[in-house]
Specification:
This protein is an all-alpha fold and 192 residues long. It has eight helices and no strands.
């Protein structure tokens, strides 16, 4: 139980730092201080690396041992994580600020990438957002696999949600337009 609590509580602290950095980065983008925002977003992404690696510790607990820990969890689950709820909230606001900054620069999203050298800060902001998004996805995948390894994939999780639902969230993205623009850029350069 102490192992589980340690992973959970330390992860919540790192998530708290991550969402605070993302929230401040959004404010900095709104104030046109994009280089400072980029520094904070790098730190937020590193927080997610730590949260992901902390999941390795849960593999030291056998599936049977976890059944004892699970009894005291009640209906609590990763869906209830205060840190992750806040991260979802502030990431949406960051996306809005990214697009507002892009519009202030008079650029389409494609132009942010095709003219990235002329708009380096904005290009790096978009790439820091995609890095953050990727880190969340890597965490989701790892979390799903740890849950599947511990309690199974065809069972009901602690919140009453099937574990398979967690697997479907792997494909969710905070910045789908930043992933989609890559398809557009590739199509622009394909021979006819």
């Amino acid at each position: 139980e102490l192992l589980f609590q340690t992973v959970h509580q330390s992860s919540e602290l790192w998530l708290k730092l991550a969402w605070n950095e993302v929230e401040e980065a959004g404010r900095l983008v709104a104030a046109d201080d994009i280089p400072a925002a980029n520094r904070l977003l790098r730190r937020a992404s590193d927080c997610l690396k730590l949260v992901t690696s902390a999941l390795d510790m849960l593999e030291h607990m056998s599936p049977w041992e976890y059944t004892e820990v699970r009894k005291v969890l009640g209906h609590g689950s990763g869906f209830d994580s205060p840190g992750f709820k806040e991260l979802r909230r502030v990431t949406k606001l960051l996306g809005e600020q990214l697009h507002a900054a892009r519009e202030r620069a008079g650029l389409s999203l494609v132009e942010v990438y095709t003219q990235g050298r002329e708009h380096d800060d904005l290009y790096n902001l978009a790439e820091q957002c995609i890095e953050l998004d990727e880190r969340v996805t890597v965490w989701r995948v790892r979390h799903f696999k740890v849950v599947q390894r511990t309690i199974g994939g065809d069972v009901i999780g602690t919140q009453g949600t099937p574990v398979e639902v967690m697997g479907r969230l792997i494909h969710h993205s905070f910045f789908p337009e930043l992933w989609d623009v890559r398809n557009e850029l590739t199509r622009m350069n394909l021979p006819e």
